[in-house]
Amino acid sequence: MQTSSDRHEYPAHWEADVVLRDGGTARIRPITVDDAERLVSFYEQVSDESKYYRFFAPYPRLSAKDVHRFTHHDFVDRVGLAATVGGEFIATVRYDRIGTDGLPASAPADEAEVAFLVQDAHQGRGVASALLEHIGAVARERGIRRFAAEVLPANNKMIKVFTDAGYTQKRSFEDGVVRLEFDLEPTDRSLAVQRAREQRAEARSVRRLLVPGSVAVVGAGRTAGGVGRSILDNIRDAGFTGALYAVNKALPEDVKELDGVPAHRSVRDIDGPVDLAVVAVPAEHVPEAVTECGEHGVQGLVVVSAGYAESGPEGRERQRELVRHARTYGMRIIGPNAFGIINTSSEVRLNASLAPEMPRPGRIGLFAQSGAIGIALLSRLQRRGGGVTGVTGVSTFVSSGNRADVSGNDVIQYWYDDPDTDVVLMYLESIGNPRKFTRLARRTAAAKPLVVVQGAGSAPQGHAVRATRLPHATVSALLRQAGLIRVDTITELVDAGLLLARQPLPAGPRVAILGNSESLGLLTYDACLSEGLRPLRPLDLTTGASAEDFHQALLRALGDDSCDAVVVTAIPAIGEGSPGDAELAEALRSAAESVPGKPVLVVHVELGGLAEALSAATSTAPQPDTRATGTRRLRPSQQLPPPARAQEPAAPATCSRLIPAYPAAERAVRALGEAVKYAQWRRDSADPGKVPEYEDIDEKGAARLIGRMLARGQGLTLGTEDTCELLGQYGIPVRRAVPAFTPDDAARAADTLGYPVALKATAPHLRHRADLGGVRLDLADEEQLRRAYAELTELFGKPEELRPVVQGMAPRGVDTVIRAVIDPAAGAVLSFGLAGAASQLLGDMAHRLVPVTDREATSLVRSIRTAPLLFGWRGSTPVDTPALEELLLRVSRLVDDHPEVVAVTLEPVVVAPRGLTVLGASVRLAPPPARDDLGPRTLPVY
After folding, report:
1. Distance from chain centroid for Cα 276
2. How many CB atoms lie under 10 A from the CB of residue 224?
3. How many angstroms separate the CA atoms of 8 and 684, rounded?
4. How far is CA 1 from CA 34, 74, 823, 919, in A?
5. Alpha-carbon distances of 219 from 216, 222, 324, rounded to whole Å
6. Of the candidates 218, 238, 239, which has an alpha carbon nearest to the alpha carbon of residue 229?
7. Per-residue confidence at 728, pLDDT binned at 50, 70, 90?
8. DSSP string of 706-757?
9. Which site from 227, 274, 516, 534 is most exposed, i.e. has the minimal number of CB atoms within 10 Å?
C-alpha cells in the first residue's frame, strides 16, 4: 500500500494480465512500497551486463536509497510498473516526468524519461514491448505526450524495442549515448505493430494448448469410468504422439502405470516437462493441482472439473480465483467445466475430451462454448456425408465451458494463420469484447470463411456480458459487414461448413439447376429466388437419366459463362439402366474436377448412399456394388460408415473436390446463398476504402472539451451550447435554435436570425413530431410568428411545457436522421435513415460498424429501402448525397476518436440539392472504459 503522503490512490485499473511472445502470460502492475524485497531479489538475478546497460556503469547492487526511489511513486509524475510471474518480478519499467531543462517536473510538463530492466532469463519473450505499451498508456492518462530514453549504442535489444514500436520518433547521438525521443500518440503503424504482436502471442498461447508435446491427466482413476480416466483412455486410444502421464494422489506407492500409461501421485514426480495438464479432480482439489502444475512448469490447463460459476456466487468467486492462480504461473486455461480439446493432425492426434471417438481429420476448425452443443456438432460432422466424411472433417476442436480465460477471440487468433484449417465454425453464447471480435473476424474472414451461430445472448457462467439493444437482423447485418457468415442453427452451421470447406467461392449469384426430377428442380428454383439468387431455368434430365447424362449436363453447366454455381438435384430411380450411387457420384465429381472454379452442390432425396459416395476419398474410381440391381440402399442414418482411425493417413490431395450433398433444396440453397454473400464481401474487402482525414477536425480540442465536460459528472447528456461546440470541433455545424419563452422572446430571436423562421416545440413528447402540429415553418414576418406562437400555446399548453425555440429556415430537402451508439454486443455503430415514419415506424435504418470508410458511407446511404427519395424518385430533384456521406464520415470519426462519446443523434438533417443543414443534435458522454480495444494488450478479467 502507498503511504498517506502519496498524491494519488493506488491505480488498480493499471493492473493487467498479458500474453507474451512465446504464449505464456505475465501480470503487469504498479510497483508499491511493499515491493522492496521483490525488487532486490529481482535485481540480484539480473546479469552484470544488463545492469551496465541500465545504469551505464557497473552497478552490482541497489542501495537503500535506490530501493526507496524505485518503490515510492506518486503515480503521476513518477510511475513504476513491474511484470511478474509467480508473484516475482521478471521486468520493470519506470518513467519520471521532466521539464524542458531535463530536470524533474510536474504538469503541465508533458515529457518523461523512461527506462527498462528485464531479467536475462526472460529476455526475448516480448516483456519489454508489453511494458512499453502499458507505461505509454499510463503516461497518456497522466498528460504525458512524449518519452525520452537514453541507451548505450551496444544495447541493441532495447534500441529495437523502441524503434519497432511504431511511434513517431527522433534519434540523436551525444557523449557516447543514443537519445531516442518519441511521441506517445498512437499511429497507424504503432497500432498495426501492437495488433500483430497480439495475434502472434495469443495464437502461440492457444498452440501451446492444442499442440502439446506431453500431457498429464490429473485425476485419472484406477478403474474404468469417471471423467479423468475416460479422458486418459481417449488420449491413449487416439494415438497421441507425445508423452502421456496419469496423475492421481490416491494411487498406491507400488502403482507405476495405468493400462500402460506411466502413473504418478503428483505432477512434481514426473521426470521431464509437461506441456498440458487436463485437470479432472473435484473443484476443492483444483487449487492444489494448479499449484503443482505451475511449479512444475506446465504451460496450460484444460479444466473439466465442475462446481464453478455454473453453481452460484460461491462458485463464481472460485472460478475467478482459479484464473488468477493459473495466470500467476503464466498458464492459460480452457474451462472450467470444459468438454475438452481435440487436434486431429497426424503429428499430434490429441483427443483430450469426453468424446469417445476421434473425429475424422479434416480442414474445419470448431469452437463451442457449450459442451452439449459441442457434442451435437461433432456428432453431425461425424454423420454427415458430402464433404465431412473422408478428408473434410475437423482440424481442431475447442469446447471452452465457462470460458473463464481462453475465449473465441483467442482461438480465432490461432486459426487465422493455422495451415491445417480452411473453415472456422463457431457456436457463441455471447461476445465478450465486441470491438475486438469484429476486428479479428474482419481480418480472419479475409483469409478463410468464419461461420457463426450466436445463442440467445446469455453469457457464459461468471461473465457479466450485456445483451445487445439492436434487433437480431441488425446485429446479423453488422457481423456480415465484418465478413462473418451468421446463421441461426447448428444445422445451418454444418451445411455452410460443408460447402465452404471443399468448394470454390461463387463468382456471383447466377445458379444453374439440373437433375432428374422436374418438381425438385422447381423447388430449388423457388428456394434460390427466396435467397436473393438468380437461378437459370432448371434443366430436367428426366428420371431415366444415366450417370453419363448427369456428367455431360454438369460439364455444360460449368462451362456456361452465364452461371456461377450449379445445384444438381437427384431422386432415386429404379430400373436396369439406372445409375448406382457410386457411379453417379463419380460422374458428378469427375465433371466438377474437369471444370474447376465453380461450386457444385447436390440435393438428394432418399439416396442413402450418394452422400457417402460423393465424399469417398480413398479412390476416384466407381465403388463396386454387390447388391442386386434395383434394390434401395439404406438411408444415411441407417448406414453410418465406421469412424476413421487416428492412425490412418489423411486422404490424398487429389480428392479435394468433395461435393457436399443435402437432403433438402432449401438447405443447399441457403448454404449457397451464404457463400455468395461471403464471396461478394471478399471482393469488396479487397478495396475497403479509407477513413478520410479532414483538415478542419480538431481532435485535441475536442478531447479537451470532453475532459472538461466529464469533470461535471460521470455521464451526461450535453446541453445545446456544449453539443454545438463539440460537434463544431469536427466540422459539423448545427443551425442555431433560440429559446423563446414568450412571444416577445420569439420576435427578438427572429429579428436576430432573420426571416423566414421556424417555430418548434422541443418538449420530449413533441420533438420531431411535425405530424402533431408542434412545428410551424416558413413564418415570413412577426405577425405570422406571433399567431403561430399563440396557436401552439393554445393547442399544447404553457410555454414552459412546450419549450419553444425559433430557428432560421433551412433550404428545402429530404429530412434524414443520423445516429451513432455504443452497443454492448456490437461495439460502435453508425446508423442512417430518413426521418419520420420510415425509420420510426418501419425501422428502415441502415447500420455500419465504426470506423466507417468512404466506400462504406456511400453504401450506407444507398442501403435503406427509401433511398430512391434521395436520388430523384418520380421526377423529384436529387439531393446532395456527397455532402451527406461526408457528414456520416465526420460523425464516425468523432465516435471512433473519442470512446467517451457514447451516443450522437443528428435529427433532422435536411439534405438539399446543394448542401445540408443539421437542425437538431444531441450528444451523450460517459467515462471511457479502463481498458478498450484501442489500449494496450491485456487479457480480459471477468
Report:
1. 26
2. 10
3. 50
4. 7, 12, 37, 53
5. 9, 10, 22
6. 218
7. very high
8. HHHHHTT-SSEE--HHHHHHHHHTTT--B--EEE-SSHHHHHHHHHHH-SSE
9. 534
In this predicted structure, the answer to whether residue 628 has a pLDDT above a threshold of 70 is no
Listed residue (167, 201, 150) closest to 159, CA to CA: 150
Contact 201, 325 (CB under 8 A): no
Judge whether 693 and 898 are in contact, CB under 8 Å.
Answer: no
Beta strands in 280-354 (DSSP E): 300-303, 332-334, 340-343, 350-353
Measured over the CA atoms of residue 875, residue 877, residue 879 and residue 880, the dihedral's sign is positive
**DSSP string for 10-29:** --GGG-EEEE-TTS-EEEEE
Distance (Å, whole) CA 933 – CA 896: 11
Is the pLDDT reported for residue 177 higher than 80?
Answer: yes
Cell, residue 457: 445472448
Query: Which helix or strand (DSSP H or E) is residue 368 part of?
Result: strand 361-368
No. of helices (H) and no. of strands (E), the chain? 27, 39
Q: Indicate the pLDDT class of residue 776, thresholds 50, 70 and 90.
A: confident
Ordered DSSP codes for 753-785:
H-SSEEEEE-STTTTT-GGGT-EEEEE-SHHHH
Which pTM does this prediction carry? 0.83
679 vs 671: CA distance, rounded Å: 12
Q: Which of 161-165, 595-599, 799-803, 928-932 has the highest mean pLDDT?
A: 595-599
- Closest by CA to 792, choosing from 812, 811, 817, 769, is 769
Whether the CB-CB separation of 216 and 267 falls below 8 Å is answered with yes
Nearest one of 43, 88, 17, 86 to 297, comparing CA atoms: 86
C-alpha 531/C-alpha 525 separation (Å) is: 10
Given the DSSP bridges, would you call strands 661-662 and 600-604 parallel, antiparallel or unpaired? Answer: parallel
In DSSP notation, 874-888 reads GGPPP--HHHHHHHH
Q: Rounded distance, CA 98 to CA 361, Å? A: 60
* Residues sharing a CB contact under 8 Å with residue 314, sequence separation 6 or more, in sequence order: none
Residue 91 amino acid letter: A
Query: DSSP alpha helices (H): ranges in 797-933?
Result: 799-802, 837-840, 854-863, 881-897
CA–CA dist 63, 852 (Å, integer): 55
Q: Which three cell numbers stand for residue 395?
A: 482440424
Cα-trace Rg, the chain:
33
Cα gap 365→142, rounded to integer Å? 43
What are the cell numbers at 537?
A: 431455368
For residue 591, the Cα-to-chain-centroid distance in whole angstroms is 39
Strands 146-151 and 111-118: parallel
Contact assessment for residue 890 and residue 731, using Cβ atoms and an 8 Å cutoff: yes
Sign, CA torsion 425/430/436/442 = positive
Distance CA 434, CA 365 (A): 21
Q: How many CB atoms lie within 10 A of CB 398?
A: 31
Pure H helices in 329-370: none
805 phi/psi in degrees, rounded to 5? -135, 155
What's the rounded Cα separation, in Å, for the pair 660 and 648? 23
Cell 439404406 found at = 634
Helix (H) or strand (E) holding 499: helix 490-502
Compute the mean pLDDT over every residue in the chain, rounded to the nearest whole number. 86
pLDDT for 651 = 35
- Provide the 10 A C-beta neighbour count for residue 852: 28
